[in-house]
Amino acid sequence: MSQFQLEIQLVASVVAAVCALPGAFLILRKMAMMSDAISHAILPGIVIAFFLTESLSSPLLIMGGALTGLLTVALVEWLRKTNLVREDAAIGLVFSTLFAIGIIMIAQFARDVHLDTDAVLLGELAFVPFDRLIIAGRDIGPQALYSSGSVGLLCAGFITLFYKELKLSTFDSALATTLGFIPGVLHYLLMGFVSMTAVAAFDAVGSVLVIALMIGPPASAYLLTNRLSRMLIYSVLLAIIAAITGYWLAYLLNASIAGCMAVMVGVQFGILFCIAPQQGLLSTRARQRNQRWQFAIKMLVIHLMQHENTPEAVQECRIDHLQDHLEWEEAFAEGVISRAASQKLLRTVGETLELTPSGRQLAQEAIVHI
Question: Is the pTM of this model over 0.85?
Answer without folding.
Answer: no
